[in-house]
Write a structure and sequence with these properties.
Strand content: 15-25%
Helix content: 25-40%
Bound molecules: cytidine-5'-monophosphate
Number of helices: 14
CATH architecture of the largest domain: 3-Layer(aba) Sandwich
Shape: globular
Largest sheet: 8 strands, mixed
Radius of gyration: 24 Å
CATH topology of the largest domain: Rossmann fold
Number of domains: 2
Oligomer: single chain
CATH class of the largest domain: Alpha Beta
Distance between the termini: 31 Å
Structural class: alpha/beta
Number of strands: 21
Strand order of the largest sheet: 12-11-8-13-16-17-19-20
CATH superfamily of the largest domain: CoaB-like
């Protein structure tokens, strides 16, 4: 039986952890709970003990606890440590390596993978200190889930809600059963927009956030692949285990892709600008009586170049952002660009820059329509689909 050590922090969302324990037990996963002092203000040890069918640990200084189940032993018997709700304070203490109670001592002493499901007020989540702590924890290899967005117990609205228990259970199950089928493969991914300069201060760009490409890079790396991520200008942290090459223009992206070959798989997610300004001005253009005309020339098509190159990866995947006749355009693009699959999405709604995505996978065999899901879930599903195809 797989075992989870569940650290319950002090937030109103602690009540949702009761449902999480029930879901995990139903999936045959053993759960042992550690309750922080703050957590004990919201749920009782009795509730957690009854649901987990195991004693609940609260204090570092409880001698009986130490004799029967020392803190090292608690983490030793677990396959995964889960922190839910991970409050701003818990994340801060984890990021700083502070060990001033049973929960944080365990987190510092464990050599097991750690998954944190944050929950806090929207301003606390968006505070630069929390941003730094989350970046640090991710760099340290902790999986920090993205909180849900919506109405909060404190009456505010925004990101900071604990992910739904079912989503946390899914993440736990995935973390407990690592799929390493992409080990030994080199996967080349492009992501983000490109910036095409008009003059030294102005450029042509698009609304791509890079999120979907970064999540695909993270999912492939988690499955053991060596991942090279060629990224346009974005404001995203590099996923753990991914080699990132930052570029600005389409031409730089094309050069970086060529330099990163050979690859077993290429996933071209970047929203590459189709045109660039033929001759970008060397100095800032001055406001005059007439608006300047821009003479545009086509950029290299990175996907199509790869599709028709002798160095073509064994599996070549393109993306197609469309606002109408999505599948029809994607099918034509697949053939024209020499790709194996096109992942097509309708970007007429809030997909670009948003959290969720609804995609169709267009292959030589037909079209699969995937249900609308988070970009994280789409990425994981695509990485699995890639592993199936190799
Ligand atoms: O033709 P369109 O831009 O819609 O095609 C989208 C697909 O082609 C994406 O996979 C994108 O990354 C890739 N592409 C490219 N180089 C370009 C334009 C698009 O690799 N210059």
């Amino acid at each position: 039986m797989k075992r989870v050590l569940l650290i319950v922090g002090g937030g109103i969302a602690a009540y949702k952890v009761c449902e999480l324990i029930r879901l995990l037990r139903r999936s045959g996963i053993g759960v042992r709970c550690v309750l922080t002092d703050g957590g004990a203000q919201f749920v009782t040890p009795m509730t957690l003990a009854a649901l987990s069918e195991a004693p609940v640990h609260t204090s570092l200084w409880d001698l009986k606890d130490e004799a029967e189940m020392g803190h090292i032993q608690l983490s030793r018997e677990a396959d995964l440590v889960v922190v839910a709700p991970a409050t701003a304070d818990l994340l801060a203490r984890m990021a700083a390596g502070i060990a001033d109670d049973l929960a944080t001592t365990l987190l510092l002493a464990t050599d097991k993978p750690v998954l944190a499901a944050p929950a806090m007020n929207v301003r606390m989540w968006l505070h630069p200190a929390t941003r730094r702590n989350v970046d640090q924890l991710r760099a340290d290899g902790v999986t920090v889930m993205t909180p849900d967005e919506g109405a909060m117990a404190c009456g505010e609205y925004g990101p900071g809600r604990l992910p739904e228990p079912a989503a946390i259970a899914d993440a736990i199950i995935a973390a407990l059963n690592p799929d390493r089928r992409l080990a030994g493969r080199h996967i080349l991914i492009t992501a983000g927009p490109t910036h095409e300069p008009i003059d030294p201060v102005r450029y042509i760009a698009n609304r791509s956030s890079g999120r979907q490409g970064f999540e695909i890079a993270a999912a492939c790396a988690a499955m053991g692949a060596r991942v090279t991520l060629v990224s346009g200008p974005v404001t995203l942290p590099t996923p753990p285990g991914v080699e990132r090459i930052d570029v600005e223009t389409a031409q730089e992206m094309a050069d970086a892709v060529a330099a990163a070959l050979p690859a077993d798989v290429a996933v071209m997610v970047a929203a590459v600008a189709d045109w660039r300004v033929e001759a970008a001005a060397g100095q800032k253009l001055k406001k005059g009586t007439m608006a300047p005309g821009l003479s545009l020339v086509p950029n290299p098509d990175i996907l199509a170049t790869l599709g028709h190159s002798p160095a073509r990866p064994r599996l070549l995947i393109g993306f197609a952002a469309e606002t109408e006749r999505v599948v029809e355009h994607a099918s034509a693009k697949r053939v024209a660009k020499g790709a194996d699959w096109i992942v097509a999405n309708d970007v007429s709604g809030d997909v670009m820059g948003g959290e969720a995505n609804a995609v169709h996978i267009v292959t030589a065999d037909g079209v699969e329509t995937w249900p609308r899901a988070s970009k994280v879930a789409v990425a994981r599903q695509l990485a699995e689909r890639i592993a199936d195809a190799l």
